[in-house]
Automatic annotation (TrEMBL):
Keywords: Signal. PROSITE patterns: SLH. Residues 212-275, 280-343, 350-410 form the SLH domain. Coiled coil: none annotated. The lineage of its organism: Bacteria, Bacillati, Cyanobacteriota, Cyanophyceae, Nodosilineales. It comes from Leptothoe kymatousa TAU-MAC 1615. This is DUF3747 domain-containing protein. It comes from the Bacteria. InterPro entries: Cell_Envelope_Struct_Comp, DUF3747, SLH_dom. Pfam families: DUF3747, SLH. Residues 1-27 form the signal peptide.
C-alpha cells in the first residue's frame, strides 16, 4: 500500500497545483530578505470593535507617486495615514493582521509560536509578541516578548511605534523569491529572546534633520532649486524623506503649505509662533480638532494668513495651486513684518516681473507684488515668462518661495 499512498499524494499535489492551489509550505521552509527600513512605518491604529483595542498596522511606501503617510510631533509621533484618502494600489502597502506580518527569530519563523499584539501601559502602547496557546508550543507559558513602544498616544489615534534595539523589518522569501509577508526580525534565537527580553528603547530616535552645511538628496542634484531646497532643510521648515529623497516635484497640499509657513516663521529670530497646546474646536468644518495640522491651521486662520472657502471648509488635503500659495505667502510676509514691528507694507526690492499668463487672473496683483518683493514669485522653473498660476505648487518651488520670504531683509 505504501507505493499507492505515495502515488496518491503526488497526484493530489499535482491536482492542487494545476487548479492554482499550492500545497501548504512549512513555515520553517521560508527564508527572509532585507528591506529598506525607511520605506515602512509601524503604527498603533484605532482598532474599533466593542473593546476599542488598538490595532497594529504596517504601512509601506512602494512608489513615489503619492505619500502614504506623514509624521508630526514627538513623544508621541503622530501618523497621518494619507493612503486612506486615495486609491493606493501599487503605491502603498498596508498590513493589518497576521496574514501580513509575523515574528522571525534567528532560528526561523516564529509566527506559530508568538502573535503580535499591542498592550496599553502607562499611557503608551507596547508592541509585544504573545505566546500562542497551542499545546505544541514550548513557549506557551512564557512572558510576552517586548518589541517596541510608542512613547505616548497620538490625539488622532495613529501613533508611531519605535522598535527596540535588535529588531528590524525583513520580508519573507521562498526559494529565492521575495513575498509580500513582513517579518519583525531579531537575529537572536527565540529561546534567548524569551529569556532575556532584549534591550528596550529609552528615547525615541529623533526625526528632526541635522543642520549640515550642505544637504544633498539624490533626486535634487540637477534640480534648478537645489540650493534653495538645501537652505529650506537647513532652516528646518521642511525635510526630506527617510529613503534619502526630497521628491521635489511632488504636489503640496493646503495643510502642508500652512505647516511649512508656520514652521518657517517660528524658526526666525524675534518671532514666536504660539500654537495652542490643544485645539478644542474644529478650526474649519472639515478640519477636525485632532487632525495633525489643526493647531497650525487654527493659528494661521486667526492671524489672517489663511482663509477657508465660502462653504466653511478649508480642504486641507487639497493640492494648493501656485496662485493660492502666493496669496498665503503675501499674508505670511505681512504677518512677519507686523511681528517685527515694521508695519505690513511689502516695499519692493526689485522691479516687478511681467508674466505672460496672469493678466485677468484673480491673483495677478498678488503675484506681481511678490515678484517685486524679494523675488518670491518667479516663472516656472525659473525659465520663460509664464507663471502658470493654476498649476499645482510643487515641493521644490514651495521650499524656494518660503526661503525667499524668510531670508528677505526688507
Amino acid at each position: 500500500m505504501k507505493p499507492l499512498r505515495l502515488a496518491l499524494a503526488a497526484a493530489t499535489a499535482a491536482t492542487l497545483t494545476l487548479f492554482g492551489v499550492a500545497p501548504r509550505v512549512n513555515a520553517q521552509a521560508f527564508d527572509n530578505v532585507e528591506v529598506t527600513q525607511e520605506d515602512f512605518v509601524l503604527v498603533a491604529a484605532p482598532g474599533g470593535g466593542l473593546l476599542g483595542r488598538p490595532q497594529f498596522m504596517i504601512i509601506e511606501q512602494k512608489s513615489d507617486a503619492q505619500l502614504c503617510w506623514s509624521e508630526s510631533g514627538s513623544n508621541p509621533t503622530q501618523i497621518e495615514p494619507l493612503l486612506l484618502n486615495f486609491d493606493f494600489s501599487g503605491i502603498c502597502g498596508r498590513s493589518t493582521d497576521s496574514n501580513g506580518y509575523s515574528i522571525r527569530a534567528g532560528d526561523g519563523d516564529a509566527g506559530s509560536r508568538f502573535n503580535l499584539d499591542l498592550q496599553e501601559e502607562d499611557g503608551e502602547y507596547i508592541l509585544v509578541g504573545r505566546p500562542s496557546s497551542f499545546p505544541t508550543n514550548p513557549f506557551r507559558s512564557s512572558d510576552p516578548i517586548r518589541l517596541g513602544r510608542t512613547f505616548g498616544q497620538a490625539s488622532n489615534g495613529f501613533t508611531k511605534v519605535f522598535l527596540n534595539p535588535g529588531w528590524r523589518l525583513t520580508r519573507r522569501s521562498f526559494d529565492g523569491r521575495a513575498l509580500g509577508h513582513l517579518y519583525l526580525t531579531n537575529d537572536a534565537t527565540l529561546a534567548s529572546l524569551v529569556e532575556g527580553g532584549g534591550p528596550i528603547v529609552t528615547e525615541p530616535p529623533t526625526t528632526e534633520p541635522e543642520t549640515p552645511t550642505t544637504i544633498a538628496f539624490r533626486d535634487v542634484t540637477n534640480d534648478v532649486y537645489a540650493n534653495q531646497i538645501s537652505r529650506a532643510v537647513e532652516i528646518g521648515f521642511i525635510a526630506g524623506f527617510q529613503d534619502g529623497t526630497f521628491r521635489p516635484r511632488n504636489s503640496l497640499t493646503r495643510e502642508q503649505l500652512v505647516s511649512m509657513v508656520i514652521e518657517a516663521l517660528d524658526a526666525q529670530e524675534n518671532i514666536s509662533v504660539a500654537l495652542p497646546s490643544q485645539v478644542t474646536a474644529n478650526p474649519f468644518s472639515d478640519v477636525a480638532s485632532n487632525r495633525w495640522s489643526a493647531a497650525k491651521i487654527q493659528f494661521a486662520s486667526q492671524n489672517g494668513i489663511v482663509s477657508g472657502y465660502e462653504d466653511g471648509n478649508f480642504r486641507p488635503a487639497q493640492e494648493v495651486t501656485r496662485a493660492e500659495m502666493m496669496a498665503v505667502l503675501r499674508r505670511a510676509a505681512e504677518y512677519r513684518k507686523r511681528s517685527l514691528g515694521q508695519g505690513t507694507a511689502l516695499t519692493p526690492t526689485q522691479q516687478a516681473f511681467t508674466f505672460s499668463d496672469t493678466q485677468g487672473h484673480w491673483a495677478a496683483p498678488v503675484i506681481s507684488s511678490l515678484s517685486a518683493y524679494c523675488g518670491i514669485a518667479t516663472p516656472v522653473n525659473e525659465s520663460g515668462t509664464a507663471f502658470v498660476p493654476n498649476s499645482d505648487a510643487l515641493r521644490n518651488y514651495a521650499a524656494t518661495a518660503v526661503v525667499r520670504l524668510v531670508d528677505c531683509a526688507n
